[in-house]
Amino acid sequence: MSEDCSQSCGTCGEECADRKVDFSEQPHELSKIKKVIGVVSGKGGVGKSMVTSLMAVSMKRQGYNTAILDADITGPSIPKAFGIKEKAMPSELGLFPITSKTGVEIMSINLLLENDTDPVVWRGPIIANTVKQFWTDVIWGDVDYMFVDMPPGTGDVPLTVFQSLPVDGIIIVTSPQELVSMIVAKAVNMAKMMNIPVIGLVENMSYFECPDCDKKHYLFGESRIEEVAKQYGIDVVAKMPIDSSLAGGCDKGLIELFENNWLDPIVKTLEKSEQADALFVPEFANQDVPAQTGSRV
Ligand code: ADP
C-alpha cells in the first residue's frame, strides 16, 4: 500500500496489491467524478433524502461541483425538494442530468417517468440495474462530490448498489428511535463489510427548538448520538432538529434557499480531507462493532 493511501480504491488509479475487491462499473466517458458519498439509512422516512440534498447544497456553497444520484428508486424525493419539473432527455451520447437552480446536477427516476406519481413496481435486480445505468449512462461532467441517496435498509438492493458504485465514504442518517435499536449497527456493519469508511452519523429529528424561547426539547428523550457514535468509532456527528420550515421548503421545491449549519461538522470533515488529501481513513477499522450476521454476496 502506498504511503499516501487515501483508502479510496474506487477513485484511485494506482495499481496496488492492497486494492480492495472492486465490482464497480465505469462511469460514462464524459463524466469525471472525484468523490462518491453514499447517504444511507436503516429505513425510509428518517430524512436520508433531506440530508443528501442539504449536503449537496452545502458543498456547492463551498464552491465544489456537486451532483445527486437518486438511487432511492422506489421513493424518489430529490427532484421535488429541488422543485425540478422538467424531464431528463436522452441524447446520442447518453443521458444528461438536470441542473438545479444553484447548479447541482441531479438524476432521478422521477426525471424519466412520465408522471411523478407513477409507482415503480420493479424487482430488486431491475432497480439495482437502473442505478448502475445512472452511473454508467449519465453524462455527469466534472463533479467534485457526488452524493448518492441510497435505497433504504441493508438488503439486496443497497448492497448491489454499493458494489456497483465506487463509494468513497458513507453518511448514516438515523432518527432518535433508530439510535436505540440495532439499525445503526447494521448500517455500520454493512459499510465495514464493504470496506467503506463512515464519514459521519446524522441524528435527524433530534430535537425541536421552541421558536418563542429557543429552548431545545428532546421529544424522544435526551440524544444518545455521541455515545452511539463512540461505540462504533465514528468521530463526526451532526444533529438536525424537527423544523417545519425545512419540511415546507422541501415540499415547495425550495431546499436550495434553506440556510442552516446543522451539517457543518460533516461539511468541514469533507473540506478538511480535501486539504489533507487523505480522504476518509476508516475510523472504525480497528473497532469492535457489535456483531451482526451477514455476508458479502
Ligand atoms: P427518507 O429519504 O429517509 O425516506 P425524507 O428525507 O424523504 O426521508 O424525509 C421524509 C419526510 O420527512 C419528508 O417529508 C421531509 O420533508 C420530512 N423531514 C425530514 N427531515 C425533517 C426535519 N428535520 N424536519 C422536518 N421535516 C423533516
UniProtKB/TrEMBL annotation:
Signal peptide residues on this chain, from the entry's feature table: none
UniProt GO MF annotations: ATP binding
InterPro entries noted in UniProt: Mrp/NBP35_ATP-bd (IPR019591), NUBPL-like (IPR044304), P-loop_NTPase (IPR027417), YlxH/NBP35 (IPR033756)
Binding-site residues for ATP, renumbered to this chain: G42, K43, G44, G45, V46, G47, K48, S49
Pfam families: ParA
Sequence similarity: Belongs to the Mrp/NBP35 ATP-binding proteins family.
PANTHER family from the UniProt entry: IRON-SULFUR PROTEIN NUBPL
Protein name: Iron-sulfur cluster carrier protein
Organism expressing this protein natively: Acetobacterium wieringae
